[in-house]
Amino acid sequence: MCNLYRMTKSVGEVARWFEAEDLAAGANFASEVYPGYPGLVVAEGTARVMTWGFPLALKGAKGQMLKPRPVNNARTDKLAGPFWRDSFAKRRCVIPLTAWAEAEGERGAMTCTWLTRPDVALFAAAGVWRMSAEWGAVYSMVMTDSCGAAAECHDRMPVLLSDSDWDRWTSGAPEDAMQLCVPFGGEVTLDRTTDRWGKPSASPEPQPSLL
């Protein structure tokens, strides 16, 4: 699953690439995006900033409400379930990115491996979005089985969309969009680094965030 990705292009570049209206001018988001933090998406013909992860309400041992957890990955085989159904049917988006990351190695000493498409400077992952009371507009990345080089890191990877499938994903019928939720058939390259896996103000271990 993906708990970190890069998007190093400007909002203007993304808007032009996807032929979208720029609604994110002046917005603040980092080039490396973590769950619970803002990221750029293209939805309803506009490039806009949302929070990465649908809020999942949690309760403590005594029944007290805890801080919601961002569920930033949506499994393809769960899209018909109650957590994702309405968003998949009505609110699909594309997530622009230049690379995504996976953690590799022993627990406590995991390192960061970056995966990307070598054939393009910017590409799109399939996503779903909705409005939330907790964080406003939120989005999640759709995941499918890994294949090729990506399978060396994890058994799941983002659903990567070809240029010709952007409109089909965002505007097609749900059953048509579901046909796109397959392992990517093109080339993916790996960059295994010695950088410790981590995320801002949190444990260096990757956190479960897949439904």
Show the helix and strand layout.
Elements: E1 5-6, H1 11-17, E2 21-22, E3 32-33, E4 38-43, E5 46-52, E6 54-59, E7 65-71, E8 73-75, H2 85-90, E9 92-97, E10 99-104, E11 111-116, E12 123-132, E13 136-145, E14 156-158, E15 160-161, H3 166-171, H4 174-178, E16 189-196
Parallel strand pairs: 2-5, 5-13, 8-13
Antiparallel strand pairs: 1-3, 1-10, 4-5, 6-7, 9-12, 10-11, 11-16, 12-13, 12-15, 13-14
Q: What report would you give on this structure?
A:
The chain is mainly beta and 211 residues long. The chain is 11% helix and 41% strand. The chain has a single domain (5-56, 67-196), classed as hypothetical protein yedk fold (Alpha-Beta Complex), CATH 3.90.1680. The protein is built from 4 helices and 16 strands. Strands 2, 4, 5, 8, 9, 12, 13, 14 and 15 form a 9-stranded mixed sheet that branches. The protein has a 5-stranded antiparallel sheet with strand order 3-1-10-11-16, with no helix packed on it. Strand 12 and strand 13 form a beta hairpin. The longest helix has 7 residues, at 11-17. The protein is globular, with a radius of gyration of 16 Å. Mean pLDDT is 90; it is low at 201-208.
